[in-house]
Specification:
There is one protein chain. With about 120 residues, the chain is an all-beta fold. It has a domain at about 35-115. The chain contains no helices and 12 strands. The protein has strands at about 1-5, 15-20, 25-30, 35-40, 45, 55, 60-65, 75, 80, 80-90, 95-100, 110-115. The strands form 4 sheets. It has a 4-stranded antiparallel β-sheet, with no helix packed on it. Strands 1-2-3 form a 3-stranded antiparallel β-sheet, with no helix packed on it. It starts with a strand and ends with a strand.
């Protein structure tokens, strides 16, 4: 796994979560690594939510959902997100397996401070 950086069509920086195919050296982008936006309540968020971790050769866990715009819970100025486990398919797509943090207490989940 690696962070692939580049520019968007508008010239803004872009950061993506990617893997390298060792047989060919091809880089496959899996999902955006940096997320930001405004939720339905008007709170802004920005940060490196992904926190990817490999599990063997074909599984990756990171903060879910991929869009990261819907926290699992909000407490005051903090958004708590779930941790998902994904299968990396043969065609380099991510297939959800399960939510690892489904039964975790809210304060044990990955957190991002929200601002207005």
């Amino acid at each position: 796994m690696l962070e692939k950086t580049g520019k968007t069509a508008g010239g803004e920086e872009r950061h993506d979560l990617a893997v390298v195919e060792t047989a060919t050296g091809a880089v496959h982008v899996l999902a955006p690594a940096q997320v930001s936006g405004v939720d339905a309540a008007g709170s802004k968020y920005a940060g490196w939510l992904r926190s990817p971790h490999g599990r063997g050769n074909d599984q990756i866990s990171f903060v879910t959902p991929l869009s990261a715009d819907k926290p699992a819970a909000k407490v005051e100025d903090k958004g708590y997100y779930d941790l998902g486990l994904y299968q990396l398919t043969a065609d380099f797509q991510l297939k959800p397996i399960r939510t690892l943090s489904a039964d975790w207490p809210v304060d044990a989940k990955p957190m991002l401070k929200l601002s207005k």
